[in-house]
Amino acid sequence: MAKWRIIGLLALIGVGVGWYITKPAPLPPDALDGLTADTANGQIIFAAAGCASCHTSEDGPPTLLSGGRTFASDFGTFVAPNISSDPVHGVGAWSDLALASAIMRGVGENGAHLYPAFPYTSYNKAELQDVVDVIAYLRTLPASDQPNAPHDLAFPFNQRIALGPWKFLFAGQDFVLQDAPTPELIRGRYLVEALGHCTECHTPRNALGGLDTARWMGGAAHSSEEGRIPNITTAVLSWSEGEIAEYLKSGFTPDFDTAGGEMAQVIKNTAQLSDDDRAAMAAYLKAIPPVAE
Questions:
Q1: Is the same domain home to 149 and 268?
Q2: How far from the centroid of its chain's Cα atoms is residue 171's Cα?
Q3: Cα–Cα distance, 165 to 19 (Å, whole number)
Q4: Same domain? 86 vs 134
Q5: Assigned domain for 2 exists
Q6: Contact call for residues 100 and 131 (beta carbons, < 8 A)
Q7: 1 domain-assigned
Q8: C-beta neighbour count of 26 within 10 angstroms
Q9: How far is CA 229 from CA 174, 184, 278, in A?
Q10: Is residue 22 part of a domain?
Q11: Which domain of life is it from (predicted)?
Q12: Are residues 191 and 277 in the same domain?
């Protein structure tokens, strides 16, 4: 009997430790203290982070963040929520701290884990000031009373409790490119790995949906369309830094082809950045390790 009591006690301790390290962890209450929002910078962060690309409807204006766009995956179909300033169907009633916790920690206003279809695994590397700024800009945009639609996920993926262990395994905050010796590369790394969350599409994933960092930017299967999302490391992408920067501005390739599909939406965002920012993103892409096809 004593042995089984010890085993039971150890099992309870294990469950308790597991729950503690995987429970939702919003930002601390004083995280935003002393930060004053700059809506002009927030508009730039809004573009860099691609908010409109996911949270507008297929045919809606880019400032009406009514949600509804669907994203197919191996785990089911996710539906982007209304993040407009509407206080009922959007996030107008959320505090700045609650919104920042959603963006950087993947924790909803109700304290539950959010699904990583929302790329907080990239946004968790963002500067708090930029997050405060983009929240302030979001509040200036029109409200939409479009109700949110539920995700269409099969069991067990519809159980949010499993997201705690997933975050523990895959939601690290370290940059993948560790060696960034110049201000340009530091800026490019920030734009690509954090705000732009480019890797969420261009890096393959393992069976649990975590990014395979050994094949960083090495291309991935397309979840909702035929074909593949391309490898954009120097093993395949031979464009110069200037050609990459021009593509991010105009959508034109060196061969005078144009960006299409989802990348066309990305270009709408990167075209709003400065020439220096696009050059920094290009420098970053030339600096990451090549990944063979």
A1: no
A2: 11
A3: 9
A4: yes
A5: no
A6: yes
A7: no
A8: 18
A9: 24, 26, 20
A10: no
A11: Bacteria
A12: yes
The answer as to whether 176 is a domain residue is no
Please give the structure tokens belonging to residue 31.
């995280």
Same domain, 41 and 100: yes
Which of the listed residues 170, 198, 216 is the one where a domain comes to its end? 170
244: domain range?
183-287
Tell me which residue of 47, 65, 59 sits closest to 148, measured CA to CA.
65
The DSSP code sequence of 21-53 is: HHS--PPPTTTTTT----HHHHHHHHHHTTHHH
* Closest-CA residue to 59 (of 68, 49, 51, 47): 68
**DSSP three-state, residue 57:** coil
Amino acid at residue number 225: E
pTM, two decimal places: 0.90
Name the token pair of 100.
């920042």
The predicted-structure confidence for 88-140, as pLDDT tens digits, reads as follows: 999 999 999 999 999 999 999 999 999 999 999 999 999 999 999 999 999 99
How confident is the model over 187-198, as pLDDT tens digits? Answer: 999 999 999 999
